[in-house]
């Protein structure tokens, strides 16, 4: 069973690599950002609550996110493995995820940390704003998301390293090159 977590700052390529890994290993790519954007589009209560956080680049509260992921991991397609993109983003989320995994007697096998220099992230995010028109890719929101990443999410690198499940991958180069690096690491485990 392949359980993967993709960790990395905004613009690191988690979404792109997540889709490819999902195809390669036949596991669902579960992107909490995509789930929230869908809820916003559908105008659900969750979407309405989440939108103000997302637009400013802040994190949606942990309780909300943990509830969403708990429900999603219960679905049939996640029983034989899953790939998480954008979750966990805080130590509290990571702890909740490990309790969820324990409760279902499966552990988080591999955490892929995509490492990209900040200068390159800023360029990619500015490009994505033009191509995808994401609301939260404005200059102010990008800046805030990077700050939030450094403060709340980057500590997860150490958290998972201490648990012996961290695999760091240079996230620069072509999409193919990065994908090759990830699958090579997963192959050798
Ligand atoms: P993403 O597409 O992963 O960059 O997520 C876009 C936005 O959704 C983030 O800036 C947050 O506002 C929110 N979001 C996504 N995943 C999480 C999470 N695990 N915890 C809190 N907020 C999240």
> Major β-sheet, in short?
5 strands, parallel
How many separate domains?
1
Mean pLDDT: 93
SSE run? EHEHHHEHEHHHEH
What features would you describe in this structure?
This protein is of the alpha/beta class. The protein has a single domain, classed as Rossmann fold (3-Layer(aba) Sandwich). Helix content is 59%, strand content 13%. Strands 2-3-1-4-5 form a 5-stranded parallel sheet, sandwiched between helices. Helix 2 (32-42) crosses helix 3 (45-56) and helix 4 runs parallel beside helix 5 (91-103). The longest helix has 15 residues, at 118-132. The chain is globular. 31% of the residues are buried. The mean pLDDT is 93. The protein binds adenosine monophosphate. Residues 10, 32-33, 36, 53-54, 57-60, 65, 86-87, 89, 93, 136, 145 line the site of adenosine monophosphate (AMP). Adenosine monophosphate is lined by residues 10, 32-33, 36, 53-54, 57-60, 65, 86-87, 89, 93, 136, 145.
